[in-house]
Each structure stands twice: as structure tokens, then as C-alpha cells.
Amino acid sequence: MLISRSKLFALLASASVFAVAAFDASAAEQWHFVVKNGTSSNITQLQVSVDNKTWGDFAVGKGIAPGQTATMIWDESTNNEPCEEYLRAKFADGSASESSKQDFCKDLDSPIEFND
What we know:
- The chain has one helix spanning about 5-20, and strands at about 30-40, 45-50, 55-60, 70-75, 85-90, 100-105, 110-115.
- It is mainly beta.
């Protein structure tokens, strides 16, 4: 299923408003994924994309510190998006990870780890 660019931006913008970097009890009842920062630099931005071309941002607050694990919550408006999407991270040192295709519908609690 293809999503128009404007719809993707609207959905991802909604997701970024409700994404949090701290796990709470409601996360177990919502679509979520876990990120672990295995690098030496703070993660300042997480981005997702259906097509690996158009990116939307997840809010990460002050960032995800090296060694820290964070649970990211999808907004309900993204429930009809495909399970497989691309994910990448941007870091305080100006670097960015390669994008990787993830299945966000399975194994929600195993961390997606970003490494140096």
C-alpha cells in the first residue's frame, strides 16, 4: 500500500507529537518500539520512512544518551501504515546512521540498536 507524501508527513508529524522517550505502563498497550543507543554520541533525532526517501521525525526530547534505551510510542493515526518501514538516527556529533528496514509489528520489545 502506497501512502501519499502529504499523508505520510501528516501521519508522521502526528506520531512525533505523541512519541515519548520514556517507557510507561500505557506503552504495553500501544504500538511501540525500543531503541538502544550503543554509540558514543547522543541520538538527537529518529526518523521513519515508508519509502526510504521521505522522512518523518519522532520526538526524542533531549535525546537518547549513549548506553540509554528508550521506548518510542506510535500515534494511533499510524495504525494503518505498513509494518515494515525504514528507521535511521541522527546524532549530536553530526553523523547519521544508515537506514534499516524494520518490522514494527513483531518483537516490539527487543531493542533496535544503533552502534558506532
